[in-house]
Amino acid sequence: MSSYHLDHLQYLETEAIHIMREVAAEFERPTLLFSGGKDSICLLRLAEKAFRPSDLPMPFLNVETGHEFPELIEFRDRRAKELGAKLIVRTVDQVVANGTVMLSKTEISRNKLQIPVLLGAIEEFQFDCAIGGARRDEEKARAKERFFSFRDSFGQWDPKNQRPEIWNLYNAKLNPGENMRVFPLSNWTEMDVWEYIKREKLEVPSIYFSHERECFRRGGQWLPVPPPHTDTATPDPYDGARPKPNEPVKTMIVRVRTIADMISTGMIESKAYTVDDIIAEVSAARVTERGTRADDKASEAAMEDRKKAGYF
């Protein structure tokens, strides 16, 4: 009599695939949040393993702030096309243009403004479930969340009133207007993600690897210099994100550890040119990956407050 034992990554993969299939079975109109970042790249491979050779039973959804890395947008669009998936993109610029939200003159980051865009897209397409790549080791607010994270008719999350998940049983019941966020990678760590990328030989955007880039120092971290603005007939989309006269520009060898937009993503000095280099670097790190995100450094409760309001 022989027995088959799953190793650590196989167990995580099996668990995540099970959750993916639960979503397909329980919900009528699910979507998969795909930004092109490393966590959502793993979600795509898990979706392939869960549903191929059939078509993926859900479209991809991405919310842009308007300050994205060009490398990330190119990768996102190309991967969606390669997989034959429908990619839905909604932007902060759209909600600003129609008057849904007002841009603050004092706040440069647009991350909070992704909330009404996401909630608007969920309402527009009547999505009852959105699959995201959040992990519990990212940030302490993430660690409070279940695999199936219930959101009320306003898109809000109540961390003190969550549904129990006993014996891997998930309560997917929804009333009209409510929706669910589902996080198949909840038990994964940053190291698990990179080990899985290595094992599955997954392509990731080039900015995850060390490269030469112009940066400037602000808020205790290195921020990338945005692309030049050449169209003088239109407003600069990166206004406020460019270095000030007292913020000298330095050419450095850097990479991203976690990707937001160019205004929020802190670059880290690194000589990690391969996935093995990144794995070695992560194993020695003493700062969480979201410690390089300006939007999370604003306050200890920043992420939890955004999630209560409807964030990813």
Assign the CATH superfamily of the largest domain: HUPs
**Count of alpha and pi helical runs:** 9
Number of domains: 2
What order do the SSEs take from the amino end to the carboxyl end, as H and E? HEHEHEHHEEEHEEEEHHH
CA-atom Rg in angstroms: 20 Å
| DSSP strand count | 10
Strand content: 15-25%
For the record, the CATH class of the largest domain is Alpha Beta
Placed side by side, the strands forming the largest sheet appear as: 3-2-1-4-6-5
**Helix-strand category:** alpha/beta
Assign the CATH topology of the largest domain.
Rossmann fold
Q: What value does the average pLDDT take?
A: 87
Span between termini: 46 Å
Low-pLDDT parts are: none
Shape: globular
Précis, in short:
This protein is an alpha/beta fold and 312 residues long. It has helices at 8-26, 38-51, 70-82, 92-97, 114-125, 190-200, 275-284, 294-297, 302-308; strands at 30-33, 60-64, 87-91, 129-131, 148-151, 179-182, 211-218, 221-224, 249-256, 267-269. The strands form two sheets. It has a six-stranded mixed sheet, sandwiched between helices. Strands 8-7-9-10 form a four-stranded antiparallel sheet, with no helix packed on it.
